[in-house]
Write a structure and sequence with these properties.
It is an enzyme of class 1 (oxidoreductase). By secondary structure, the chain is mainly β. Helices cover 0% and strands 42% of the residues.
Length: 373
């Protein structure tokens, strides 16, 4: 969408205020006795208060009405969304799926929430360790409805159709060849512009980070400056018919009603934010004299576990690149690991079809995964 602005950087201490309310961001303190414009101050924490400074995540939001002003949550249908892996027997075989069919809007209106389908996963949100992989297929925008994931972070990969994501921090337009991350506890709504489909990698108990570069040096792979965070935007809107907040909590869905839009944050500051990234900005490191470098060099984002060097999940891409080597079998070597591999896009470049492949690796060892067919 033309006119949307972003701030550059990964994990920065950002500060933003809507230009319609100059001076709405308090200066010199987080929680003044009276906030500018009579706003309410809220802190959204992405980590424990006592986490080391390098891993401490939080943002301060200054909003027209507090987010806790809503009616009680009640259970709602989860549809095809689950993290109960006991529903199916584990299957160690290689599996493949046909493309998920996008419902026709003329037949059935399906928004982002009702179009979520769990494909596979391991672990669970209660133990704060594990992942789930979902597909979304939808044809209708979320109207007077938002989603909040209390279980973990969503890494969203649009495959067909662009999506406009409205968050408490501002708006992001995310197109195919881009990804975005909505971190735990952040409310968001998704607008679509036709038949839309994509992937979601959900991680429990960790946030996505840039991988360490080691001997690669200071630059390469996904550079921090290429990540984009939205600027503050708000709407002061009363919804007499009721605004629905859907909360994912311990793998179940709950909903509540309130009479105002949750996207009423006039200003904010902090390092716990949603963000997006264009995969075409990934700097590929691969040209070798012989053999193949391990696929970890294609990691865009990683969610680390408590074991050094072992990730809960890696988000890996295999973008167009030069592949030059002597005395080497051209395709990569066979190796055993758990992963979800998808052909994400086909681009015509220099009369050659190039497949941009996205790999979601689940830890660097064999794990038991349940796959929902």
């Amino acid at each position: 969408m033309a006119g949307l602005k972003y701030m550059s950087g990964f994990g920065n201490e950002f500060a933003s205020e809507d230009p319609r309310c100059p001076g709405s961001l308090p200066e010199g303190q987080n929680n003044p006795q009276v906030c500018p414009y009579g706003l309410y101050a809220e802190q959204l924490s992405g980590s424990a208060f006592t986490c080391p400074r390098s891993t401490n995540k939080r943002s301060w939001l200054y909003r027209i009405l507090p987010s806790v002003r809503h009616k009680p949550f009640t259970p709602m249908s989860c549809g095809d969304l689950t993290e109960n892996w006991n529903e199916v027997e584990p299957d160690p075989n290689q599996l493949r799926w046909k493309p998920f069919i996008i419902p026709k809007s003329s037949e059935k209106k399906v928004d982002f929430i009702s179009g979520l389908h769990t494909v596979c996963g391991a672990g669970d949100s209660k133990s704060r360790n594990g992942i789930a992989i979902h597909m979304y297929t939808c044809n209708t925008s979320m109207t007077d409805k938002c989603f909040q994931n209390a279980d973990g972070d969503f890494l969203i990969v649009p495959q067909q159709g662009e999506i406009l994501i409205t968050t408490e921090f501002g708006k992001m337009m995310v197109e195919p060849n881009e990804i975005c991350v909505i971190q735990q506890g952040m409310r968001f709504s998704v607008d679509v512009f036709g038949e839309t489909r994509g992937y979601i990698l959900e991680v429990f108990g960790a946030h996505f980070e840039l991988p360490d570069l080691g001997p690669i040096g200071a630059n390469g792979m996904a550079n921090p400056r290429d990540f984009q965070t939205p600027v503050a935007w708000y709407e002061d809107r009363t919804v007499a018919t009721g605004y629905t907040v859907v909360n994912k909590y311990q793998g179940k869905l709950f909903s509540c009603q309130q009479d105002f839009s949750p996207f009423n944050v006039v200003a904010w500051h902090g390092n716990y934010t949603p963000y997006k990234y264009n995969l075409e900005n990934f700097m590929v490191i691969n040209c070798v004299a012989f053999d193949h470098a391990d696929p970890s060099i294609f990691t865009v984002l990683t969610a680390k576990s408590t074991r050094p060097g072992v990730a809960i999940a890696d988000f890996v891409i295999f973008p167009p690149r030069w592949g030059v080597a002597d005395h080497t079998f051209r395709p990569p070597y066979y190796h055993s690991k758990s992963e979800l591999l998808t052909t994400y896009d086909i681009m015509l470049r220099q009369h050659l079809y190039i497949f941009l492949t996205v790999t979601i690796s689940i830890v660097h060892e064999t794990v038991e995964m349940s796959l929902l067919c």
